[in-house]
């Protein structure tokens, strides 16, 4: 492996697919099983979790820098689309939603948020739908917050505002003339 793996600096925000947005707080060298390893030490504030990732494994686990502005715009644009609800069993859809969230791909996460959003005038969500929706929204909001340098509740409100406006437009389309 002559090519240098992804490089992150202390203080950088990064996205770890299974956990969302974290911050590199330290670069460490440790000897594990007689081998010298360089590790990124990541801190996930919301989960109060610290994760150590070998620098040479960062790319293979899908760790990445925050999304580009173009990707963020694409994700926010996705939220304005018409929700796609498949008529498959909930357990299968739930697995697909979880896979999209854990992919770490911002646009895929936005699709889950869009598809599971319920406006005030729509039927209630089940407990598991609400859990997945809140998880996806939180993941999207944390990356949005880090990119726009605002707090997570502000980012979450921006996402919900986009969803409410989109729902109003799509529900108007359904209204009988």
Automatic annotation (TrEMBL):
Please indicate which superkingdom the organism of origin belongs to: Bacteria
Note the SUPFAM superfamilies from the entry.
CarD-like
CarD-like/TRCF RNAP-interacting domain segment(s): 7-117
Q: What is the recorded name of this protein?
A: CarD family transcriptional regulator
